[in-house]
Amino acid sequence: MGASTQAEIDAKLPQARAILDTWQAKDPLRAEKKIHIVYWTPSDREPAPRYRERLGAILEDIRDFYAKEMKRLGFGPRTIRLDYADDGMMKVHGVKGRQPYASYDVQSGGLIRNECLTTLRAAGIDPEKETIVIFCNMSNWDADKRTITQNSPYYAGGTNRGGTAWQVDSPILELASLAKKEPRVRDGQYGDISIGRYNSIFIGGVCHELGHALGLPHNKQRPDEEAAFGTALMGSGNRSYGENLRDEGKGSFLTLAHGLKLASHPIFSGSVKGIDLPSNAEVSAVTIENRGKSFTLSGTVTADPPAYAVLGYMDPDGGGDYDATTCTAIPDAAGKFTLEADALAAGKSGVFRVVVVQANGAANSFAGASSRITFPYLVAGDGSVDLSASQARLQLAPLLESLEGPAEGVPVALKEVEASAAGPLVKETARVLAASVGYQPGPAPAVAEGTLCHLSDAATKSARVGYGRAQPNRLPEGLLFSCGSQLFPRGLYAHAPASHVWDLGGKWTTLEGHAGIPDGRDGGSCVFVVKADGKELWRSPKTGPGSPRDFKVSVEGVSSLELRVEDAGDGNGSDWGCWFAPQVTR
C-alpha cells in the first residue's frame, strides 16, 4: 500500500466519520434497505440454467467486495444488503417479457423496466424508492462453438433514494469460473478470451453498474492508487474484477472518493434519516490557486444535513468521464475545505467538477451540479496548468448570478467587474454579457459599417437551435463561451441541429472564428459546417469537448452565409455546439 495513499485515508476518515456518525446518531431512523433482484426473460425464452444459484453467488461475492473495500477505507464492513427467500437462496423476482427476443435490444432498458413494475409492486417494492438490479436473459451461448454474444441493456443510474441497473445473464456467468484461465470462449465484443476473463468482465460489470445505481459516477485511479490497489471499479475496474485470482493483475478497488459517497447511502448506512431531503449544499468564497503543475480549489460549504465530504473530479476532455481522477476534502467546523488537484493529464484541457456529499446521502451529481462548481483548466505538454478561464468564471460569478435575477441588478454587478483588477478580456466579456439582457441585434452584415462585424451582434435572417432558444452571446446554465480554457467574449449557442443565417450582401471578404463544445459540458459530439450561398466552404471533423476548431475562409462576393451544427450521426444528446467569436472582415 502506497504510503501517501494510506496517509490520506488515515487523515481524512476520522474527520468524515465524526461528521457523518454524529448526525446519524441524533434521532436515528434505522432501516434495512436492500438490493432487489429481477430476472427478466423474453416471451420466447426460458431462464438460463441455475440462474438463482449462479446470480446469488455472484451478488454475495460483490457484497463481500464492497465490504472489504469499505473496511479498507476505514468505514468498517458497510456493504449492500441482499434479500433472501424462505429457502435460504437469494430472492429473485421472475418476469416474463411481453414480446419475443427479437423485439428487444440494447436501448430497451425503459421498456424492460416497465414490464417489471407490476411484479415488483405486487411484492411490496416501490421501484422509485428502491435499488433494482434487472438481469436480462439476452445472451446467446453456443456450447459447441464456444461463442457468446449479447444484445442487452447494460447501464445504470441512481441516487441515495433509489436506482436501477440493467445487466445481462448467460449460462457461463458463474463465480466458480472467475479464477480459471481455461477454457477459452469467443465473445462477440471482446474476442478470444479465457472463461475467467469473461467472468471478470461481466461479474465486474454487475459490480460496476450497481455502483452507478447507488449514485457513483465514473472515475479512474490516480497513479498512486494504481500502484497500491489496482484498477478503480468505476473506471475500467469492471474488466479487472477478480483478475488477481488468476495472477493477471491487482484486481479492482473502490477509490476513497467513492467510498466516502457510499458511506451515507441508506443501503450502506442502515439509516433512512433525511432520505427524502434533496441536496441543498451551497459552495461560496471559492478561490482557485495555480501551483505550477497542479492547483488547489478552496471554498466554504453550507448544508443541512451537514456536508461531510467534498469530492473533486479532474476530468480531461475525451473519454467521457471514465478517465476522471479524484481528490477529496473534509470540511472543517466552519465548512471550509481545500481540494488538491494534482492528478492531471498533461497536454489536455479538462474540467474540474466539485461534488458535495451530505450526511443523509444526498449529493449534487454531475448532471445537476451548478456551473459555479465546475471549473475548466488547460494542462500543457510539460504539465503546467492554465486556469485563466476558471479565474474568469470566478471574477464574473456575481454578474452571471445577476443575469438570473431582476434586470436592475445587472448594471450594479457590471460596475463591480469594471472596477475590479480583472483583465481586459474579462471586462469585455462582462460588457457583452450585460448587453445580452434585453438583447437587440445590430444591423445585418449587408448594411453594417466598418471593417469588422461580430456575427453574434448582427441581425440574422434566421436562427434555430436543437434545444432551448437561440440567444446570442449567452449560454444556458450560466456557462461562459470558453473552450479548452480559452475565454471568448462573444459567441453563438448552437445546440445541434442548429442553423444561423446572415445576409452578407456580397460586401465582406473573410470569415473566421472557432467552433466547439463549451467548457463545463461533459460529452456530446458535433460537426460544424460553413455554407455560402448554399455551397459548403468548411466542415469540421467530429468534435467533442476539448480544444476549439479554428476556421478561416473567404466569403468574397457571398450573399447568404449559414453556420450549421450537425449531430455527428450519433444523436444530439448533449450536443452543445458553439460558435466562438465568429466574425467577418473586409
Task: Give me the secondary-structure topology.
Elements: H1 3-25, E1 35-41, H2 51-72, E2 92-96, H3 109-122, E3 131-136, E4 139-142, E5 147-150, E6 156-159, E7 162-168, E8 184-187, E9 191-194, H4 195-213, H5 223-229, E10 231-232, H6 237-240, E11 252-253, H7 256-263, H8 266-269, E12 282-290, E13 295-302, E14 307-316, E15 325-329, E16 336-341, E17 349-358, E18 374-379, E19 385-386, H9 388-402, H10 409-418, H11 424-435, E20 452-454, E21 462-464, E22 482-483, E23 486-487, E24 491-493, E25 498-503, E26 510-516, E27 527-532, E28 535-539, E29 549-554, E30 560-566, E31 578-585
Parallel strand pairs: 1-2, 1-3, 3-7, 5-8, 10-11
Antiparallel strand pairs: 4-5, 6-7, 8-9, 12-13, 13-16, 14-15, 14-17, 17-18, 18-19, 20-31, 21-25, 22-23, 24-31, 25-30, 26-29, 26-31, 27-28, 27-30
Helix pairs in contact: 9-10, 9-11, 10-11
Mean pLDDT: 94
Q: What CATH architecture label of the largest domain applies?
A: 3-Layer(aba) Sandwich
Report the end-to-end length measured between terminal Cα atoms.
Answer: 64 Å
Q: Going across the major beta sheet, what is the strand order?
A: 2-1-3-7-6
Mind summarizing the main beta sheet?
Answer: 5 strands, mixed
**How large is the count of helical segments?**
11
Shape: globular
Top CATH class of the largest domain? Alpha Beta
Using only C-alpha atoms, the radius of gyration works out to: 26 Å
Give the tally of β-strands. Answer: 31
